[in-house]
Amino acid sequence: MFFNDHAPPHFHASIGGAEALIDIETGETLRGRLPRVAQRLVLEWRSRYAAELKANWDRARKGVREPLERIPGLDADDD
User: What is the domain partition of the chain in residue ranges?
Assistant: First the structure.
């Protein structure tokens, strides 16, 4: 996620040399492509953290450079 990025609210996901922009609200791939397994994992992660992603998007769009909240990555322990 980048400060003052373009709408719609989205985040950037990458693995290896592949990158995709994912719509926070719908999970639609706006641009790019990820391998199938990575895409599935990213969409599950997006679903789990959609509220946190949207809150960070709102922070980033304010233009005051408020620090974004840390969101656990795919490799985070659930325990």
Answer: 10-61
Residues, the chain: 79
Please write the tens of the pLDDT for every residue from 9-67. 999 999 999 999 999 999 999 999 999 999 999 999 999 999 999 999 888 887 667 78
How far, in whole angstroms, is CA 27 from its chain's centroid? Answer: 9
Extended beta strands in the chain, E state: 10-15, 18-23, 29-32
Instruction: Identify whether the C-beta of residue 53 lies closer than 8 Å to the C-beta of residue 26.
Output: no
Contact indicator for 63, 4 with CB cutoff of 8 Å? yes
The predicted pLDDT at position 66 comes to 73
CA distance 7 to 58: 11
The backbone torsions φ and ψ at residue 67, rounded to the nearest 5 degrees and listed phi first, read -60, 140
